[in-house]
Amino acid sequence: MSFIKYGSVEEYKIEFDYSSIHILVDSNTKKHCLPKLPASLTEQANIIIVKSGEMHKTIDSAKMIWEKLSNKNADRKALMICLGGGMVGDLGGFCAGTYKRGIKYIQIPTTLLSMVDSSIGNKTGIDLNGIKNLVGLFYPPQVTIIDHRFLVTLSSRQILNGYAEIIKHSLIAKEETLFDQIFEKDLLKCEPEKLIPLNIEIKSQIVDQDPLEQNSRKWLNFGHTVGHAIEAQAMQKGIDMLHGEAIIIGMMIELELSTAKLGFPQDLRNKIIDWIKDNYRIDADWIKSEAKRLLNFMKNDKKNHEKRTLFSLLKSKGDCIENVECDDKLILQTLQRHRKW
User: Fold this and answer.
1) Is 338 an active-site residue?
2) Architecture in CATH of 3-153
3) What digits encode the pLDDT tens for the residues 236-285?
4) pTM for the full model?
5) Candidates 1.10.10.250, 1.20.1270.10, 1.25.40.10, 1.20.1090.10; CATH matching 156-336
6) 213 in catalytic set
């Protein structure tokens, strides 16, 4: 794992001798977050702006960034700083890892989602043909700076977006601490800044055990086989849906699959689903009618092997099993009986 620093971005000092500094922002973080960086840093940096939103995490955006670096004669000793949420971090890390076969970069996540998930674990990538992160590489940043003061710039919807991954970590972790702190509570009344270190610890331990996602790191995909399919189809249909919202639905559906395949307790499953529905209001009425399209996206999931649709499912709370095969009929039945809000 790369080094993780907690604290103010204003106090962070660039400790290495870089030939040039390039800061990647989207239209939102340019306005709300870039001014929080030290003026001594931003005044000497080349600011690269990408359009906000997952739909812009594409090869075209990567090409634009590579060209901006090239036009500024960035060499292999250049530094990229990714200031933003998961899209900026994934895209910027991918460009840093591929430009001139790799330049150094720093992650400064500015959303709760990116602080607890996407900035941790060294994954970078772009979407292709509507499939999430189809092209990418493992490429660690020099440092990831967690400054929870950026959370004040977020709406309640964006805070709940981040809580989706916190819920996931609480369900796959063997320790009860995180689960006990949030289960059956009003998430918007919790204090996310106090939960961030524990989330990072859970994810970091899993990543350290399996950095290239051969075995136990696949536990982090709980909710994501279905969730990524929902996110991709929502994007195609023009439905306003955030990553965490798709993952929340994905987890509820995969909890149903967990009961069917591994015997996850029905009473706990129902309590978890009811608690989630108490906290989230997501437009999911279209999922039943799009079940076959969602299944097609799942069949293209990069975790599949030998044309088998594979999931990471829960046998019990804290007992996640990777590479569980589910047949088409079960997947379709579970999608079609998904309980609406």
Assistant:
1) no
2) 3-Layer(aba) Sandwich (3.40)
3) 999 999 999 999 999 999 999 999 999 999 999 999 999 999 999 998 88
4) 0.94
5) 1.20.1090.10
6) yes
